[in-house]
From TrEMBL:
Belongs to the cytochrome ubiquinol oxidase subunit 1 family. Pfam families: Cyt_bd_oxida_I. It is found in: Cell inner membrane; Cell membrane. Residues 445-470 are annotated as: Disordered. This is Cytochrome ubiquinol oxidase subunit I.
Amino acid sequence: MQDVMGLDALTLARMQFAFTVAFHFIFPAFTIGLASYLAVLNGLWLWHKEERYLRLFAYWVKIFAITFAMGVVSGIVMSYQFGTNWSVFSDRAGPVIGPLMAYEVLTAFFLEAGFLGIMLFGRDRVGPGLHMFACVMVAVGTAISATWILSVNSWMQTPQGFVLGENGQFLPADWVEIVFNPSFPYRLAHALTAAYLTTALVVGGVGAWHHLRGRGDNAAVRTMFSMAMWMAAVVAPLQIVIGDMHGLNTLEHQPAKVMAMEGHFQSHPEGAPLILFGLPDQEAQQMRYAVEIPKLSSLILKHDLNAPLAGLDTVPRDEQPPVGIVFWAFRVMVGLGFAMLGLGLWSLWARWRGRLHDSQWLHRAALVMGPTGFVAVTAGWITTEVGRQPWTVYGMLRTADSVAPLAAPAVAASLLAFVVVYFAVFGAGVFYILRLMAHAPMPGEKGAEEEPGPLRAAGHAPGLITEEAQ
């Protein structure tokens, strides 16, 4: 089969899926947390009747609408690849993953879509009670959507509850076991907390920007920064604890992935070191220039300094994941996680001293940390998915056996088209979001229904436009 620049169809198909998934994932990672933040803001407005909460709701709901739309579009494009580049996987695993994906649409997506319009445009049309209910339903819908998608992904990581048909298909035998597979609870908790932390960092970064621009006397700016720092201080340590539990679950069910994350090419019968940094050499099966702490990996993974840990020397070469990618992606995720913890603790110290809104160095740090949630969730996704290789369904179906019989030039052409279109269309969307973030929420902040541009037509009835003109 003809290659393109030395890349075969399988490699190009994997690159295309990685690109579209990584691009898509940043939007749900933001909207899951932002939907809950908007529901909280709306609840605080109804409870306290303080204008700053209404102002913040109107400010962030426009950003949510744009981000939600980009997430939907990128998700649709991504799902088409199951039938184009990965038709063999779709045929083999379809009896299991097909119904789960359908449940996500029938429950979560319809719930979000049904109440999204009321949330965006219904405050003065349906009454405060129903509008608040719509805000909660959109937030719940985003969480339910994540639940179904993560159930699918977790089943691919730790498959159970199926039987193999005569044609090699995975046929469901127990839906409870399929949905609640061994890695699902840990993966769901880890992903949801990551989404909430990502949103907190973005909101905190925007608040820090306006503080540094001399807008710290704006009540809405102070409120958004304070709420974001509370969230970071609470969720960052929780995320580290959940991540540790998730890692122990991964060690039990996917030991080769943990070996790659830790960079352990050799087994350690009397305690394994924690390798902080190094250059993995998979060909030579060794870690070059390793900077390590003796026996700490055994303490973390087994809670015993002298506990033995197996290495990749116990795994056949053709079943080892790409160690270099997994090793470094994991360190990016963990390093940023501890930086987030540091930011949360710093904010608590500044709050205790009464300098939360006066510490410019804290504001600079929060601004720098603003986009790091997206980097961390992408690094975590890379760790999870690349660490599963060479399998699509772990231990059962290889990636090389899942790809559609396509020619490399065809896959390369579609990959190039995706790259050009994504950066043009979504780049424009991100640019507009940054412009919205650049101005501080002001008294009388207009919501989505009042904003000029494409959103306006969906938010006004002709009679209301006439009344406003008067």
